[in-house]
Amino acid sequence: MGEAPENIVLVETEADVDALEVADPGRVAYISQTTLSVDETRTIINRLRERFPAIAGPRTDDICYATTNRQSAVKQMAVECDLVLVIGSQNSSNSQRLVDVARDYGTESYLIDNASQVQEAWLAGKRVVGISSGASAPEELVERLVAYFTERGVQDVSEFEVVREDVRFMLPKRIREDLATRT
Q1: For labelling, which of 10, 28, 64, 171 has a CA lying 20 to 30 Å from the CA of 157?
Q2: In this structure, what CATH number is given to the domain that contains residue 81?
């Protein structure tokens, strides 16, 4: 939106799509925030396609795999937990969405920056606590939160994995060439 504000309209809900007025309905395209999941964008994109049949858009695999995977994990984990703690920044939409997903499944959930923000009142009467993190939260913060619980005497710690994230990104060609000439 910062690049072409005169040509871009922020659409966050289906109602926004319904209210959208464009000069040429045949020349409309959409993009989505990469940290939104396919589930989050599906209904809005479907509504856009209904209103603007010629609309152009990215492939669904352009949506952040880490966000989609974490939301799937939280959906499955939340039904087994009494509490879900999500590590991530307060201004991270994907971290906040993980909290919402857990709550949608009836599980108490909080967004925290780190282990020092865990409140004793949240833990009262809880047997199973799930831990997740936003797509850009450092793994070290998750490890510290797990350590927080083990230091309190928790012995049964297990990793809940829905999808193994083993995506590898190729270095740009120029960098690969430079590295090859050094060896």
Answers
A1: 64
A2: 3.40.1010.20
